[in-house]
Each structure stands twice: as structure tokens, then as C-alpha cells.
Amino acid sequence: MAIGESGEVITAAPPILYDIVVSAGSVRLVIDWESERGWAKKYGQALAAAEWIALRPRPGAGLPPVLVALGAGRRWIITTRVYRESGRGVRVYGIGWQTTVGGRNIKSILWTYTDGSVELSESPGHVRGGIAPIL
User: Which of 32, 33, 55, 70 has a CA 20 to 30 Å removed from the CA of 15?
Assistant: First the structure.
């Protein structure tokens, strides 16, 4: 079960199609965020020290890998959201960073859709009707 952006319950949420790969110096972790609850807290030190984090597609997913490098003074954003579309759950994946500049929170997030398209924005285009009509 998942909760959609507008608070509706989506009973048949789609499966996670990516694993998270974290590179922090000589340490490389592969995290199954679907089955490993509390992974952000468990791997907090590695995430804080990470030079890059990637979304690695699971076998057969047919999706592109997505990698984000982190600059100084930035914090990671790794998320997945489920939206209702035509009566079914649609999952999008977000990976990026945020930082505070002049008291404002600035975000840069790459959103990956299950059709393989990728969007750079603070929130996924699904909220604005999707990106497919633009392309």
C-alpha cells in the first residue's frame, strides 16, 4: 500500500525497479530500498560521506541508470513517489541534492519515469500532467 501525493491510498503500488548504489571513498554499497526498511538511517554515515549516488535498474527493468555527484555543502535527496493514473499506481524515482543559500532551500532532482524519460526539476512533471505531451 502507498499514499499518493493528494493523500489517496493506492493499494497496489508498483514494485521498485531500481536499487541504490552509494560510493563513499573505498566503500560501495548496494541498497535494496524496497525490502530494507530504515536504510537511510542505517547507512547514514556512508550517505553523508558519499561522493556519488546512483539508481541502478534491476534486471529486466529496461530503465537507464541515473548517477548524481554531490558538491560541497549539499545534502542528498533520494525518493520515490506513487501517483494514481488511469486507476493504477505509477511510480517515479527522484535522486538529487539540496542546499541552503541565503536562507532558501534550493533543490535539484532528477526524476526518472518508468518509460525511461528523465526530468530535472524540484517536483516531478507528473504533478503538472506529465512530460509525455511535451515530447
Answer: 70
> Which triple of cell numbers denotes residue 83?
501517483
Mean pLDDT for 61-83 is 86
Q: For the chain, what is the domain count? A: 1
**What's this model's pTM, rounded to 2 decimal places?**
0.73
Residues 6+ apart with CB under 8 A from 68: 52, 53, 54, 95, 96, 97, 110
Provide the residue range defining the domain that includes 49: 2-128
Closest CA to 20 of 11, 33, 9: 33
At 18-41, the pLDDT tens digits run 999 999 888 899 998 888 888 888
Q: Is residue 135 part of a domain?
A: no
